[in-house]
């Protein structure tokens, strides 16, 4: 894999980035890559009571810190869940601003095959904003009818365990079946088996600039 100097993770909602590429984030930071993380919704209007509206804001700050992302490299917005299409232009303009400030050479975003309506917007507008940049689409299997495994990033046990630890910071979301520790480890094992590695994360290559 070509060494990245600055990587940008685009997460439609808090925890999507950790789920899709948490192990890779850990590895990249370990190797000296500057990683920035953007979450487009902290879901203040959709959290059920009695959870405080800022619950996910607090949790994503803990989770990204565990991954090694500096607080200064974390950007949070609060677009309404399942309504991203209404704010498509605003989202694109924010992405263009981020492009100017961060100037990443690698962008992670949801695969175009993701069927969640918010994820589709971030995938599409992310491609528009970063069309001259290498882009990898991450998988969220519960949202993917199909997924093209074009690229694999090899991981060690410590990378996967750090991903699990970061996701455990989302105590408000532990009822989600995909936040199961065994599932996270199992998917990393499956992707590793595909390339005769102990663990891996898989990505769709949307654009690769060398």
Structural features, described:
With 210 residues, the chain is of the alpha/beta class. It has a single domain, classed as LmbE-like (Rossmann fold). 39% of the residues lie in helices and 19% in strands. It has 6 helices and 7 strands, in the order E-H-E-H-E-H-E-H-E-E-H-H-E. The chain has a 7-stranded mixed sheet, with helices on both faces. Helix 2 runs antiparallel to helix 5. It is globular, with a radius of gyration of 16 Å.
Q: What descriptive keywords fit this protein?
A:
6 helices; 19% strand; alpha/beta; 210 residues; single chain; 7-stranded mixed β-sheet; Rossmann fold; 7 strands
A few lines on this structure:
This protein has helices at 16-30, 55-67, 88-102, 117-129, 157-167, 181-194; strands spanning 6-11, 34-39, 74-76, 106-110, 134-138, 151-155, 199-207.
Count of individual domains: 1
CATH class wording? Alpha Beta
How many helical stretches? 6
Task: Indicate the mean pLDDT.
Answer: 97
Strand fraction equals 15-25%
CATH topology: Rossmann fold
The poorly predicted ranges are none
Task: Going across the biggest sheet, name each strand in turn.
Answer: 3-2-1-4-5-7-6
Terminal CA distance: 10 Å
Q: Rg to the nearest angstrom?
A: 16 Å
* Class by alpha and beta content: alpha/beta
Number of strands: 7
CATH H level: which superfamily?
LmbE-like
Morphology call: globular
CATH architectural group: 3-Layer(aba) Sandwich
The major β-sheet equals: 7 strands, mixed
The SSE order reads EHEHEHEHEEHHE
What level of helicity do the residues show? 25-40%
